[in-house]
Every structure is written in structure tokens, then in C-alpha cells.
Amino acid sequence: MLEGSFYNIVQSEQTASSFMALLALNAAHPVFEGHFPGQPVVPGVCMMQTIQELLEKGLQNKVLLQKASSMKFLVMINPVVQPQVTVTLQYTLQENNIVKVNAVIKSDSSIFMKFQGTFSLITH
After folding, report:
1. Which residues contact 92 (CB under 8 A, 6 or more apart)?
2. What is the Cα–Cα distance from 103 to 115, expressed in whole angstroms?
3. Does the structure show a pLDDT above 90 at 34?
4. Which domains does the chain have, with CATH numbers?
5. pTM assigned to the model
6. Paired strand residues for 111
7. CB neighbours of 100 closer than 8 A, spacing ≥ 6?
8. Neighbour-count burial for 85-121, b at 16+ CB within 10 Å, e otherwise
9. Where is the ApeI dehydratase-like domain (predicted)?
10. Chain centroid to CA 88: how far?
11. For residues 89 and 38, which has the higher predicted lDDT (pLDDT)?
12. Are the CB atoms for 64 and 122 separated by under 8 Å?
């Protein structure tokens, strides 16, 4: 779980089919010691984990990634230069506990990542 260490939610908004969060990134997080020293860049896997965590928060349910139909990393995020980003999720619940998701990670002036894919709800 990255929330609370890698990022903190500054502000969020939710509807029945969307979740938006303004995140403060922690530039002092240990992941940046290896990715990369002196020139930190948010790893793609951390972006995907953040999307999953925010989707779970929006749905109030654990999810598992099933398919990434499209995943585009457009601009690198340097947490020193860009300490806050906005993550916007649009989602629809489909048959068989499948959730179709469109996500964007951006700032006012840049789009860092676009994602389209499906997750499944984890039911016990």
C-alpha cells in the first residue's frame, strides 16, 4: 500500500462512477533512491498501484487487475518538480464483477499517464 508513505490524498471527490484525488507525492520516499538517485522519477508500477488503490477506495472493495488494454506513459513525473498530481478514474461495473476503468494521472499542464483496462472485484 502506497497511501500514507508514497503519497497522501490532499483532496478527493467521488460520484457513483468516478473518483478524483489530488495527491501529494513524497519525494523523500526510499523508492526514489533507486529510481533514480539525484533525478527521481515515479515508477510506472507505482502509478498503477496508485490507480488500483484509488479504485478500491472509490468502490469500497478490493480489486485485481485483469487486463490493461492501453497503458501510456506520456511524461515522467519528478516528485521534486511536480509534488502534486491529480488522478481521475471513470469506471463502470459490468457483469461477473468486472470493472471497466479509464484513468488519467495529470497536473494542470501535463498528462503523465493514461490507462484503460479492467479489474475484477474480489469477493469472499
Report:
1. 17, 99, 100
2. 5
3. no
4. 7-121 (3.10.129.10)
5. 0.96
6. 106
7. 91, 92, 94, 117, 118
8. bbbebebeeeeeeebbbbbbbbbeeeebbebebbbbe
9. 13-91
10. 8
11. 89
12. yes
